[in-house]
Amino acid sequence: MKRIQAIVQNYPEGSQTSAISMALDIVQRQIGWIPISAMHKVAELLSMPRMRVYEWATFYTMCKREYRGKYNVKICKSLPCMLRGSDFIIRAVEDATGCCAGGLSDDKMFGVDLVECQGACVNAPVIAIDDDYYEDLTVCDVYNIIEKLRCGDIPPSGPQGGRYAAEPCCGLTSLQTGPPPPGYCIQEALRQDKKGDGCN
Ligand code: FES
After folding, report:
1. What pLDDT shows up at residue 129?
2. Which PANTHER family does this UniProt record tie to the protein (predicted)?
């Protein structure tokens, strides 16, 4: 409550409703999901109609309106990930967690969801577990990640195949030389004019 009140104060008078995304995020981080009673409380705090909060919570897939496990595993199934083997990743996640897509594992540790593009296509296939992205996945990586989470470890996120970020797998294909010096490719006429000024 204190955090939400502090955030609301950052907005100009009359625009406090803009704090809705942060308010719902705080609720979700505290409780694990966003029950309707919390939506009502947020509406009351931000002096906005309840319907506006329902609209927000139902539009954004990151708003969880039911408990989705200690770890919410979101598997991207959009085209680039599909072309890079997301069907195998889906099966591996379901097998490793013991939970079908859309379901919750018996021990309530994992909730598995299929989602649309998560904006990391260049590192496809991708899964997001809560706030962390796991990219360049193989089936083997999936089993390792789920096993570590089950044991209480948080495996390192990011590309799993050795890439630092989204650079080409076969090494750099651009920016392979140092930058050219000042005046590079400048028109000859300009170069001569500037010579007298001591400029290059
Ligand atoms: S298609 Fe999977 S991250 Fe974009």
Report:
1. 96
2. NADH DEHYDROGENASE [UBIQUINONE] FLAVOPROTEIN 2, MITOCHONDRIAL (PTHR10371:SF3), NADH DEHYDROGENASE UBIQUINONE FLAVOPROTEIN 2, MITOCHONDRIAL (PTHR10371)
Q: What is the pLDDT of residues 91-131, one digit of tens each?
A: 999 999 999 999 999 999 999 999 999 999 999 999 999 99
76 marked ligand binding residue? yes
Closest atom of ligand 1 relative to the 78 alpha carbon: 1
What is the rounded CA–CA span in Å between residue 43 and residue 50?
5
Distance from residue 86's CA to the centre of ligand 1 (Å): 10
151 is annotated as contributing to ligand binding: no
Indicate whether residue 75 lines ligand 1 (CB < 6 A): no
Q: From ligand 1's centre to the CA of 4, what distance in Å? A: 32
Q: How far apart are CA 12 and CA 173, in angstroms?
A: 48
Q: Which residues contact 186 (CB under 8 A, 6 or more apart)?
A: none
The CA-based angle 104-41-64, given to 5 degrees, is 20
Q: What is the pLDDT of residue 74?
A: 96
Q: Domain 71-159 belongs to what architecture? A: 3-Layer(aba) Sandwich (3.40)
Please tell me whether 140 is known to bind a ligand: no
Q: For 151-175, how does the pLDDT look when each residue is reduced to its tens digit (9 = 90+)?
A: 999 999 999 998 999 988 888 888 8
pLDDT at 200: 44
